UniProtKB/TrEMBL annotation:
The keyword Ribonucleoprotein applies. This is Large ribosomal subunit protein uL18. This is one of the proteins that bind and probably mediate the attachment of the 5S RNA into the large ribosomal subunit, where it forms part of the central protuberance. The lineage of its organism: Bacteria, Pseudomonadati, Pseudomonadota, Alphaproteobacteria, Rhodobacterales. InterPro entries: Ribosomal_L18, Ribosomal_uL18_bac-type, Ribosomal_uL18_bac/plant/anim. GO terms for biological process: translation. One of its GO terms (cellular component) is cytosolic large ribosomal subunit. Keywords: Ribonucleoprotein, Ribosomal protein, RNA-binding, rRNA-binding.
């Protein structure tokens, strides 16, 4: 019986998350979610179970609704870096989920690094 794409994605996502939890050292997690139309990112404190900062292309104020391309991902990365720094967060661990680290996910990560987040 062959694994479905969804099952393989979930296995990859859990494998990445478990590796991060081992090596996080109490740092918040920068978690990325990508859909066909939008991209969103959250800074999550796993110890307290709270979201510390978030950004998404669904926010009308950013003017990126329905845009899921590399430019939109880079803008979201810059916004999350700004919001995380405003919340007093300098270092995070990057949780790409089950998504491969290229294209939109890489653009988001690079923009967040340029914005001042360390990971």
């Amino acid at each position: 019986m062959a694994n479905s794409k969804r099952t393989l994605f979930q296995k990859r996502r859990l494998r990445v998350r478990n590796h991060l939890k081992k090596h996080a050292g109490g740092k918040p997690r920068l978690s990325v979610h990508r859909s066909l139309k939008n991209i969103s990112v959250q800074v999550i404190d796993d110890v307290q179970g709270r979201t510390l900062a978030a950004a998404s292309t669904l926010e009308k104020a950013l003017g990126l609704v329905g845009r899921n391309n590399v430019e939109a991902a880079a803008k979201i990365g810059a916004v999350i870096a700004e919001r995380a720094k405003a919340a007093g967060i300098e270092e995070v661990v990057f949780d790409r989920g089950g998504y491969l680290y290229h294209g939109k996910v890489k653009a988001l990560a690079d923009a967040a690094r340029e914005g001042g987040l360390k990971f």
